[in-house]
């Protein structure tokens, strides 16, 4: 059993204080009814209510996570809410591709993409960002929410133990470098950031 399968029953309790930054990250996507949205490392689906409120039943929400245990909790939320427009994919985020999206969700490109508390955890995080960024349509939006603690203090070590991640990663840097515009907001005394940007429009 993987670590996130093990902690999945209690994950929502531990993440109870993340609602504000999550809402801000989803708000930065500037969702429209009918949008196709990918939630990378979606976990138990804590972002889903905010995304669904923006895309409506005509949109498509794709949740991808490596942990079957986390996805099982997400699936129960989807079933309980009656969301018929959600596709859950159990896969390593490093395998993200147009082919995977086409096979599992019937789409190849995305209007919006989101990753919350994921890039500090996944292996090869820069590759995961680049692969998911490449799936955006021109003008698509990408938003991140994650921890960042520069100092290796006791709290940082505790977070890394709980998450099995690295909270010193500057996960926003590839987004800042790639986007046509960029915004960055911090929460919880600067320890949590929300970053967002827009994929450059196609050349005329």
Structure overview:
- This protein has one domain: Vaccinia Virus protein VP39 (Rossmann fold), CATH 3.40.50.
- It has helices spanning 3-14, 19-28, 48-55, 68-81, 98-105, 125-133, 154-163, 173-178, and strands spanning 36-40, 60-65, 86-90, 110-116, 136-147, 182-187, 192-198.
- Helix 1 (3-14) packs across helix 4 (68-81).
- It is of the alpha/beta class and 204 residues long.
- The protein is globular and about 45 Å long.
- Strand 4 (110-116), helix 6 (125-133) and strand 5 form a beta-alpha-beta unit.
Brief characterization of the structure:
It is built from 8 helices and 7 strands; from the N terminus they run ααβαβαβαβαβααββ.
Query: Biggest sheet, open or closed, and with what strands and sense?
Result: 7 strands, mixed
Whole-number count of domains? 1
Report Rg.
16 Å
In whole angstroms, how far apart are the ends?
A: 50 Å
Strand-pairing-aware structural class: alpha/beta
Which strand order do you get reading across the main beta sheet?
Answer: 3-2-1-4-5-7-6
What's the number of helices? 8
The whole-number mean of residue pLDDT values reads: 94
**SSE sequence, one letter per element:** HHEHEHEHEHEHHEE
Poorly predicted runs are none
> Outline, from the CA principal axes?
globular
Q: What amount of the residues lies in strands?
A: 15-25%
Number of E strands: 7
CATH superfamily annotation:
Vaccinia Virus protein VP39
The CATH topology annotation reads as Rossmann fold
Which percent range fits the helix content?
A: 25-40%
So what's the CATH class? Alpha Beta
Per CATH, the architecture is 3-Layer(aba) Sandwich
